[in-house]
Design brief:
The complex is a heterodimer of chains A (112) and B (117). Chain A has no helices and eleven strands. With 112 residues, chain A is mainly beta. The termini of chain B are far apart. The chains are: A mainly beta (112), B mainly beta (117).
């Protein structure tokens, strides 16, 4: 069964560094999402991506964040200058035409 | 505004007990989807069910059942004869609209279910 994959599973970085989180969505899906979950809290929407552009973003998704689908398969989330409060689990999801979102296993980002 | 409320922060039951997890939602849309996800200690999000706003039929899948009531804006989840493997955080979520450029999920705060042997 096709699945969403994310790399790395765990990323440790120093405050102020740039990180890129990678996702490979399911191949025939059209909608892509990033969500964030701070430890012990709920899952929060960050951004949605459709037709090679951002379709919606939350207040969390400020200028430090960017998304890209550089080669038609990978879907990346970049954080330009990480802060301690960016430490969280980041989930990628892709969605098919039946509006069911398939989540990846997540990347745990630790900013020290 | 969209909102999902899971008032139960933690529930502890003994194996074989039935347990119901509550979910109340708010939306101005007439068309929307409701979801339940399970998050075991390993951290991944496991899809359990999707229900659209036009279908109020209750659903049963093995030991799991869901009760959707538009009149009370609730979408409750019952586990019958709970097992230790059911121990996890359970999230209810809402998505508005059909076929737009975004169908973002709005999650509740989750209910931590602990099933004791």
């Amino acid at each position: 069964e096709p699945e969403v994959t994310q790399t790395p599973s765990h990323q440790v970085t120093q405050m102020g560094q740039e990180v890129i989180l990678r996702c490979v969505p399911i191949s025939n899906h059209l909608y892509f999402y990033w969500y964030r979950q701070i430890l012990g809290q709920k899952v929060e929407f960050l951004v949605s991506f459709y037709n090679n552009e951002i379709s919606e973003k939350s207040e969390i998704f400020d200028d430090q964040f960017s998304v890209e689908r550089p080669d038609g398969s990978n879907f990346t989330l970049k954080i330009r200058s990480t802060k301690l409060e960016d430490s969280a689990m980041y989930f990628c999801a892709s969605e098919d035409r039946s509006y069911e979102q398939y989540f990846g296993p997540g990347t745990r980002l630790t900013v020290t | 505004a969209q909102k999902v409320t899971q008032a139960q922060t933690e529930i502890s039951v003994v194996e074989k007990e039935d347990v119901t997890l509550d979910c109340v939602y708010e939306t101005r849309d007439t068309t929307y989807y409701l979801f339940w996800y399970k998050q075991p200690p390993s951290g991944e999000l496991v899809f359990l069910i999707r229900r659209n706003s036009f279908d109020e039929q209750n659903e049963i899948s093995g030991r799991y059942s869901w009760n959707f009531q538009k009149s009370t804006s609730s979408f409750n989840f019952t586990i019958t004869a709970s097992q230790v493997v059911d121990s996890a955080v359970y999230f209810c979520a809402l998505s508005e609209g059909y076929g737009g450029a975004t169908n973002k999920l709005i999650f509740g705060t989750g209910t931590l279910l602990a099933v004791q042997p």
